[in-house]
Model the fold of this input.
Amino acid sequence: MITYRCLPLLSLLLLFPTAAVTSEGYQLYSRPEAPVGTEADYGKTCALLEQEIAALIPLTYSDKPSLHDDPYAGAAVTVGTIAAPIALTYLAYPVAFEHVEQAQIADVTLRIEALRQVKASKHCFED
Done:
């Protein structure tokens, strides 16, 4: 039996599904992809490739505190325990946000690796 307390968590699962739909069909977990540079990447100079990599690296950082270091999570537990159980639904937000953030970081990391592969194939900075 589903109670009213589970509804916010269930709605978050519907908003942020963990499964990926690919050309091969429906996958529960994503599979690693090989980094592949585009034709435009191969047309860039070594310096431009290095500049693009340097611009992408900060996008792999996360400023979000962990669940145990988040003061709002502590407040949600305290308020949810003492006064309003609905405050406990805040605890699902950092988890959903981290899921989305990790997907974005994975995409940026794949792009960085593709650019590094292009740099290696062009033998950049070997002098």
In short: The beta strands are 20-22, 25-27.
